[in-house]
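Researcher: We're teaching a course module on how sequence relates to structure. For the next exercise, students receive a sequence and then see the predicted structure as tokens, so they can try to spot secondary structure elements on their own. Here is the exercise chain.
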Amino acid sequence: MTLELALLNEQKTAKVIQLLEEFRRDIPLVENRVDEQADAMAEPADTERVLEAIRETRAESERITGAD
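Model: And here is the predicted structure for the students to work with:
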């Protein structure tokens, strides 16, 4: 449940950054420039990659501890 909430929050934050960047580009008084950091943060997390990383970490932990 906590992970689901964190991912949902991250998706919402990414959307806000996307909207802010769009707004910034549309304001004629602000110089249009590329902000690589904002572009990266505007991309929502790949939930499949997060899930796979969790599975890999769990499997590694079980291998180390000898748990089945």
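Model: If you want an answer key for the exercise: The radius of gyration is 18 Å. Helices lie at 2-26, 36-41, 47-65.
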